[in-house]
Amino acid sequence: MKTRQDAWSHEEDVLLAETVLQYIREGKTQLAAFEEVGRQLHRTAAACGFRWNAEVRKRHLEAIEQAKKQRKERKRALEMMKKWQKEANAITFASSDATQTAQGSSSFLPAAPLTLDQCISFLQTLQRDAEQLEAVRQENERLKRERAEWQAHNERLAQKLERLEARQTTVQEDYEALVKIMARARQLASEEGERLSLAQLLLAETDEQSEPMAHS
């Protein structure tokens, strides 16, 4: 069976899935992921998008949902960090102004410590991020193992195809030789038949000439 030149291999599908999932986790657009994969595979972004929506996406629905959750957690953690930093800066500036007013001391004072609830919330966020990163790492390892297995499988199929093609060549050559032998045999049989017919004709003429002599 002839394979289309633009057909997608399993390795290309895995690369497309890994890139799109990574871009989803990082809050980037899928279009940017299609463009990145297109540059690597020398395909258009439209072709990558069509392949993703038509074939690859439905095989990674669970991973997509996980990536979206990780994106939300990542966004929430960044927002919390910005909020904490803003609050800490405000407290620092307020404390610095009050100290300078009361004591005339330097403005380079340590920031106010975070509250216990803030520390607990931050650590919980870090724990969730660590768990999600571990899940992502395991998924990546699984995809890498799957890619390696398919590569080995493709190599075995390529070797088998090579052997079959060599065998087909041998069979074709044997078939052509057999056809030539049969054609030669038919030619020889035809020539032999012509010789036999001629001999029979001569024998018949000889018999006809012998009969009058016998009666005389």
Automatic annotation (TrEMBL):
<feature type="coiled-coil region">
    <location>
        <begin position="123"/>
        <end position="174"/>
    </location>
</feature>
<keyword id="KW-0175">Coiled coil</keyword>
<dbReference type="InterPro" id="IPR017930">
    <property type="entry name" value="Myb_dom"/>
</dbReference>
<feature type="domain" description="Myb-like">
    <location>
        <begin position="1"/>
        <end position="56"/>
    </location>
</feature>
<dbReference type="InterPro" id="IPR014243">
    <property type="entry name" value="RsfA-like"/>
</dbReference>
<feature type="domain" description="HTH myb-type">
    <location>
        <begin position="1"/>
        <end position="60"/>
    </location>
</feature>
<dbReference type="Pfam" id="PF13921">
    <property type="entry name" value="Myb_DNA-bind_6"/>
</dbReference>
<dbReference type="InterPro" id="IPR001005">
    <property type="entry name" value="SANT/Myb"/>
</dbReference>
<feature type="coiled-coil region">
    <location>
        <begin position="53"/>
        <end position="87"/>
    </location>
</feature>
<protein>
    <submittedName>
        <fullName>Transcriptional regulator</fullName>
    </submittedName>
</protein>
